[in-house]
# Entry
Amino acid sequence: MTKIQQFIILLGLLSFFKPSLTANLHASDKNRPNIILILTDQQNANMLSYVGNPYVSTPNLDNLAQSGILFEQTFASNPVCAPSRFSLMTGLMPSQINGEDNGSVMRKKVPSDILNNSLGILFRNEGYETVYGGKVHLPGGQEGKANDVTKYGFRKLTNDSRDKLPGVCAEFLKQKHEKPFFLVASFINPHDICYKVINDWRKSLNEDPKGGVAWKTLQQALKLPEGVSEEHFFEKICPPLPDNFNISDDEFLEAAGPTKPFTIFGRENWTEKDWRLYRWAYKNLTELVDQKIGTLLQALYESDYDENTIVVFTSDHGEMDASHRLEHKSVFYNESVKIPLIIRWKGEIEPGLVDKNNLVINGLDLLPTLCDLAGIKIPKNTPGVSLKKVITGSKKKLNRDYIVGEALWARMVYDGEWKYMIAGNSEQHEMLFNLKNDPGEMCNLALEKEYKEQLERCRKLLIKWYKQNNISLNKAYVYK
# Structure
């Protein structure tokens, strides 16, 4: 065999083994950024003092925003826990596995081709150490086992999503890591707010309260400050009712998304003081989780990894927080579906940036963005977009004019001005709001003849988005 023949064979072997060689090179490349993804549960976009909310103090998240970029127009793919978290981990819409609420999605057996392109597995295959701490709430693999993060490519650090989680993450950051790492820290709060109306409703049915540690944490959050009279508390300290506290004109609530019996109980039975006390507790739970996040961030700042770590903060969905006389989530009103998104990368992202215009879906856009920032190939047929060029300043506008959202038996379209919602269950109902003129979503224009053109336009945009992304759209959402 000649030397030329030997060389050709060697080239063939190198080509055959290229993927594994690339992965090994990546694993040893310490210049690749580490990633920390911090998740909270049920924190709406307004629950940051950084955005001007005077009734909440979030110094640690404020500091993170001041050192990175805040996307003000960020929305959940679905305003409920498990479907949204499925999106965050896979970059897909929940309807792509027919899982549009907590009950249905948690029973799903996620196909292996979806899992193989999930965040943890994508990064692990590129040489990253992938670890996860805290709340999971994800459907399982072909075996059907739910809440197993190993199916999504992560090693579990801890199941705790409260007091222990920040310390466990801090210990991880003190260790020496030969590979770049991807750490998820998933905190439960301010989700404990859920149990206020649930337990009031249960009490009305002569049933015992539920919630365990969550209920105890909420009870602490509900307490009035010591040495303060109730009169002074409500006059000077407790957050007031929101401007959009009342119910929208011509509201079809099912078009905004599903509600539970306890949600209707709160809307019909709570007094204004009940609602204000609820907002007080939500504020306290948000500040509590900010403190926990602060412990984690301080550990990062004091570690050897701060210079080359991308930090992402977001939430799975929002919280109605008394708007429209509603609590909880599940609906397409902004308080429920709009969430914070902060990205920090020291030395790479200009500090203090605020993006006010680009429409972002955190569940769809997070995966392609992180892959793009880390130099990892973005999977095909991903409906989201990478935010990299906006983050790095090379581009101001995303190639996106509108977004869509999913809920159980409801769909949403939003273009930055007009928001359209449609119910597709037993009877079709629609709502249409102009958020520039009506930011509180108080006046449903879907029944007004003069807005028929905008209504039909939004109907077409919904169909167009699903067609362009090769995702099935149930005929129930095509207005008849």
Summary: The chain has three domains: 1-30, 34-193+278-401, 406-477. The radius of gyration is 23 Å. Confidence is low (pLDDT under 50) at residues 1-28.
